[in-house]
Amino acid sequence: MATADLSASTMVDLHYYIETKPSILIGDSLYFTFEGIRAGMAILKYDLVRHGLSAIDAPEACECDQMGIVRAAEDGELGFATVEGNNLHLWSWLTGDGNSGEWTLRRVIQLQSLLPSNPSMPPKVIGFAEGRDTIFLETDIAVFTLEINSEKMRKVGEAGGYYNVLPYMSFCAPVSL
């Protein structure tokens, strides 16, 4: 089995810190959310083939108090989800020529009518279930999942100051012979 050369290093001086939010693998790249000391939200892309780092600014219209999360969009490309007020904003990164691209707002879901109770603070995005089109939201009342396609909201936990959620999907246990 061949091993990859991990001795090559890449540095980026961006005055940012990587969030402990879930990352996502899309194609040959890993994406992480990070926040700048002066510049706000952005996404760090690590190309696993070229061993290079690049940064993508979060959507410009995303002037919210909370950090969003990277996720796979409906087309399997890079997506971004965040809450502004009581609305979930779902963005897609559309790649243009070369390395350029732009964010497109794909969908806005009004959360106030979907939540079973009326929280005093806006919900915040704390995770996603990869491949399931499900977002985890926390309010001051409880933790909920939102199935994006059906817009079904379900309580899955008590409120408790969560920063992120990494859902347990499944595992494969080896069979003893």
Automatic annotation (TrEMBL):
InterPro entries according to UniProt: AT5G49610-like_b-prop
Domain F-box protein AT5G49610-like beta-propeller: 10-174
Entry protein name: F-box protein AT5G49610-like beta-propeller domain-containing protein
